[in-house]
Amino acid sequence: MFKKILVPTDGSELAARAAVTAAWLAKNQRAQVVGLYVIDPFPYIGIGDASSVGLQAYLSEARSLAEKALDAVDRVCAAQGVEFAGDTIERNVVHEGILETTEAEGCDLIVMGSHGRQGWKALVLGSVAQNVLTHAKVPVLIVKS
Questions:
Q1: Average pLDDT, stretch 6-29?
Q2: 107: which DSSP letter?
Q3: CATH number of the domain to which 85 belongs
Q4: Which domain covers residue 126, as residue numbers?
Q5: Structural domain tally of the chain?
Q6: Residues 43, 31: Cα–Cα separation, whole Å
Q7: Rounded Cα distance, 59 and 13, in Å
Q8: Over the stretch 35-66, which tens digit does the pLDDT of each residue have?
Q9: pTM for this entry
Q10: Burial track 30-62 (b if 16+ CB lie within 10 A, e otherwise)
Q11: Under a CB-based contact definition with an 8 Å cutoff, are residues 37 and 88 in contact?
């Protein structure tokens, strides 16, 4: 039924649980898992050498975190014998990056974690998962905390 499953990750324990669920589903569906890490662009606030040094340090750290998070998803997939491909992108709005990647990669399912915030916390903090659910053109499986 599913051929390509997108797993957005931020390296958290919740994202790791979503990866386990996605790998299990992929194994049973003979599907591929596509891991995605979205880097928030550097908050550019000025010009000059200090900004370029800050940008390089920021991107280096962000890429390192992305690599670790995607490696964790890769290990989970390898343990299940599931094909994995990882991708890192930069977007100001995380859910838009997830939706764009879903379409670009031809994914037919998104499996992601959600903290399940409700009430004022959801309003104040927002929810990437809620925005993905609202705007996705493919099914979304939410793994809750």
A1: 96
A2: -
A3: 3.40.50.620
A4: 4-144
A5: 1
A6: 37
A7: 23
A8: 999 998 876 665 655 566 677 888 889 999 99
A9: 0.87
A10: ebbbbbbbbbeeeeeeeeeeeeeeeeeebeeeb
A11: yes
